[in-house]
Write a structure and sequence with these properties.
Layout (H helix, E strand, L loop, with lengths): L6 H4 L1 H11 L7 H15 L2 H13 L4 H6 L11 H14 L1 H4 L3 H10 L2 H23 L9
Helix pairs in contact: 3-4, 3-6, 3-9, 6-8, 6-9
């Protein structure tokens, strides 16, 4: 449900272009991608995307406990080092004006990911921020599931 206007209908060419970008992001595991998208959406307060990516993460085999604790990933022990590096990078890129994507976080990424994966993770975060701004700005809300 979209409360303000249907951005996908109004500019379908641009929206389809954004959707096409995701087809070129194959180096990042599906579950990690969903978790990163979920974390970015939590930060941005996007209810539609939080619902969507939590569902996608569950469909990819993610546990409910890890989903429940993603917002506080630093305080719990069931996220692996490569996931922590990805979450820290996602948060830094999402809060870019405050963080300036610090070198220590980039170096941590390099310990766990290839250059291709780092580019793809950054594309995931960047694209997710764009989707969040559209969905929040136009009040795109998830349908109620029974």
């Amino acid at each position: 449900m979209i409360e303000r206007l249907d951005y996908g209908e109004i500019n379908s060419k641009a929206i389809n272009g954004m959707l096409a970008v995701k087809k070129h992001i194959a180096s990042v595991d599906e579950k990690l991608q969903a978790l990163v998208e979920l974390r970015v959406s939590q930060i941005n307060g996007c209810v539609y995307c939080v619902d969507l990516h939590a569902t996608q993460a569950r469909d990819a085999g993610e546990t409910q406990q890890r989903l429940d604790c993603l917002a506080v990933w630093r305080e719990c022990r069931f996220f692996e080092e490569h996931e922590r590096a990805a979450f820290a990078w996602a948060e830094a890129v999402t809060h870019l004006p405050e963080t300036n994507a610090p070198d220590d976080l980039y170096l941590s990424l390099k310990k766990h990911f290839t250059e291709q994966q780092i580019v793809d993770l950054t594309l995931i975060v960047s694209l997710m921020n764009a989707w969040n701004r559209l969905a929040v700005g136009f009040r795109h809300l998830p349908d109620v599931r029974v």
